[in-house]
Amino acid sequence: MHVTREMFNDVMVPNYNPANMIPVRGEGSRVWDQDGNEYVDFAGGIAVNVLGHCHPELVKVLNEQGAKLWHLSNVFTNEPSIRLAKKLTDATFADRVYFANSGAEANEAALKLARRFALDHYGESKDQIISFKQGFHGRTFFTVTVGGQAAYSDGFGPKPGAVDHCDYNDLAAFEKLISDKTCAVMMEPLQGEGGIIVPDPDFVKGVRELCDKHNALLIFDEVQSGVGRTGHLYAYMGLGVTPDILTTAKSLGGGFPIGAMLTTTEIAASLKPGTHGSTYGGNPLACAVAEKALDIVNTEEVMQGVLAKEALFRKHLDAINEKYHVFSEIRGQGMLLGCALNDKYKGRARDFMMAATEHHLMCLVAGANVIRFAPSLVIPDEDIELGLARFEKAVAQVVNAEQDSAA
């Protein structure tokens, strides 16, 4: 069957509007489309392909485990899931792990656990969940309601109750909102979809202290910021603040779907047998791949490399901006960076992304005003340089078109 982009419109629900080209093969930080055109990948499958495409060690593990055992269900346990859980608890604050298939599912589990923990220890009245405006926690109805972008949750009927939103980095507003009725606070330690917003360290510390004061659980959504992306294995490690529950997905599987919720023994006790579950969560195939991805990423060499690559990105982006004057700032940490557009180009992030695709660079947006880069953590420096040369051409194209229309 010859597949075309037009066929997408005939067979798919219209909730996505993908690029006109269809990628068919990837290797490292390069991707090829149906016509053999080569692209540099700064999108990373939305911060997923932490080791690029078809990393030889991940391919090897996938083939080995694929010839052994794929799926069992949680009526039985399996070796890869236990090994991965042990490595995650050894590397973090956590004692216990729950496996799911995605970030949204990990967040769903975290929110249900927080509500159940509060019920077990404090009674029914302690049910408020506080999260932050422009936050993003997934697309299930619970997680999208907790997420701070009403446009994603409006129009589907009555929303789950007792969920309140606060401005990110506004500790005074947060202090007014939190009380002894608060069971949990969910936040990204670096806002991703909301515009690559880095938190004020004092804000994060203040949130932690107020959670402690009111016996509320602090949930860190590290679905996008986790597994080395900020130059720390998890972003909380660079903030000097430890959450009670942490969620991780995206980069965890290196491209294979997996999510996990991490927490302490005491809190985990509230998810007794039968309270929550997942048919595919913790399957041996996903866990084997994720274990290998974690082994490779969780090294000094890769973490230091992330910071060096961030510096290289910033140097070139600053040079592009000196020439074309389109960004108000370059935001983010490590290999999660955002180019925030200035007032002249406000709302036009998608135009830059589309122009980049025309120049054979894959990138992302984070809202209407931010161009987002979330490449492989081990992207070669020469691919960064080539990709940013292509990005400069895209920027020039948008700027020149603007000037032509003004003339």
UniProtKB/TrEMBL annotation:
<comment type="pathway">
    <text>Amino-acid biosynthesis; L-arginine biosynthesis; N(2)-acetyl-L-ornithine from L-glutamate: step 4/4.</text>
</comment>
<dbReference type="InterPro" id="IPR050103">
    <property type="entry name" value="Class-III_PLP-dep_AT"/>
</dbReference>
<comment type="subunit">
    <text>Homodimer.</text>
</comment>
<feature type="binding site">
    <location>
        <begin position="221"/>
        <end position="224"/>
    </location>
    <ligand>
        <name>pyridoxal 5'-phosphate</name>
    </ligand>
</feature>
<feature type="binding site">
    <location>
        <begin position="103"/>
        <end position="104"/>
    </location>
    <ligand>
        <name>pyridoxal 5'-phosphate</name>
    </ligand>
</feature>
<feature type="binding site">
    <location>
        <position position="139"/>
    </location>
    <ligand>
        <name>N(2)-acetyl-L-ornithine</name>
    </ligand>
</feature>
<feature type="binding site">
    <location>
        <position position="136"/>
    </location>
    <ligand>
        <name>pyridoxal 5'-phosphate</name>
    </ligand>
</feature>
<dbReference type="Pfam" id="PF00202">
    <property type="entry name" value="Aminotran_3"/>
</dbReference>
<feature type="modified residue" description="N6-(pyridoxal phosphate)lysine">
    <location>
        <position position="250"/>
    </location>
</feature>
<feature type="binding site">
    <location>
        <position position="279"/>
    </location>
    <ligand>
        <name>pyridoxal 5'-phosphate</name>
    </ligand>
</feature>
<dbReference type="InterPro" id="IPR005814">
    <property type="entry name" value="Aminotrans_3"/>
</dbReference>
<keyword id="KW-0808">Transferase</keyword>
<protein>
    <recommendedName>
        <fullName>Acetylornithine aminotransferase</fullName>
        <ecNumber>2.6.1.11</ecNumber>
    </recommendedName>
</protein>
<comment type="similarity">
    <text>Belongs to the class-III pyridoxal-phosphate-dependent aminotransferase family. ArgD subfamily.</text>
</comment>
<keyword id="KW-0055">Arginine biosynthesis</keyword>
<dbReference type="InterPro" id="IPR004636">
    <property type="entry name" value="AcOrn/SuccOrn_fam"/>
</dbReference>
<keyword id="KW-0963">Cytoplasm</keyword>
<keyword id="KW-0028">Amino-acid biosynthesis</keyword>
<dbReference type="InterPro" id="IPR015422">
    <property type="entry name" value="PyrdxlP-dep_Trfase_small"/>
</dbReference>
<feature type="binding site">
    <location>
        <position position="278"/>
    </location>
    <ligand>
        <name>N(2)-acetyl-L-ornithine</name>
    </ligand>
</feature>
<keyword id="KW-0032">Aminotransferase</keyword>
<dbReference type="InterPro" id="IPR015424">
    <property type="entry name" value="PyrdxlP-dep_Trfase"/>
</dbReference>
<dbReference type="InterPro" id="IPR049704">
    <property type="entry name" value="Aminotrans_3_PPA_site"/>
</dbReference>
<keyword id="KW-0663">Pyridoxal phosphate</keyword>
<dbReference type="InterPro" id="IPR017652">
    <property type="entry name" value="Ac/SucOrn_transaminase_bac"/>
</dbReference>
<dbReference type="GO" id="GO:0008483">
    <property type="term" value="F:transaminase activity"/>
</dbReference>
<dbReference type="InterPro" id="IPR015421">
    <property type="entry name" value="PyrdxlP-dep_Trfase_major"/>
</dbReference>
